[in-house]
Amino acid sequence: MIHAVRLATSSDLDAAALVLAAAFDTYPWTRWAIPADGYAERLEEVQRLYLNHALNHGIVVVDEQIRAVAAFLPPDAPAPNEHTQQRVGALHGPRLAALIGLSLPQVPAGSWTLETVGVNPSLQGAGLGTAVVAAGLAIIDRQGGAVALETSDARNVCLYQRLGFTTAATTTVPEGPIVYSMNRATQSQ
């Protein structure tokens, strides 16, 4: 099945954040990184903040009905502004210290990052995630960029491998999930 996808606009932000919050509800990383108290609300707000940053500095792709979303940042994207960083820190609450102390492999120099991808849980497995990621990758490929990502769900590794990523490292987070760091070399057009 072919899914119609497009670049997101600011008017898509709330709907896209809801999709990501639903998709990441049981995700190992977010369950580890976000406190259980008010988890759903914290998760949705974190997703909205990061999506807004990606919308302003990178590429956000959605399907026409906003059931799937993928966000990419270029290698020269600035860090989120101070207000956003403070709010994200507050949303992580007591987990912030563990996040700050975490050491994951560096993204290869000059690489874009696939920051997030999520699909409405009732539609997962229908190709929507592949469609939004592939559309973002196609844009990056036209610019000649490599792409890196991290995932904490072993099931995602196969999806990303189908899209040309290879696993560069596997990190076991103390008292947390396993993180798969993956890279995709620059694709020639």
From TrEMBL:
Sequence ranges assigned to domain N-acetyltransferase in this UniProt record? 3-187
- Cited SUPFAM superfamilies: Acyl-CoA N-acyltransferases (Nat) (SSF55729)
Q: Name one Pfam family in it.
A: Acetyltransf_1
CDD domains recorded for this chain? NAT_SF (cd04301)
| Cited PANTHER family | GNAT FAMILY ACETYLTRANSFERASE (PTHR42791), N-ACETYLTRANSFERASE DOMAIN-CONTAINING PROTEIN (PTHR42791:SF1)
What's the protein here called?
A: Ribosomal protein S18 acetylase RimI-like enzyme
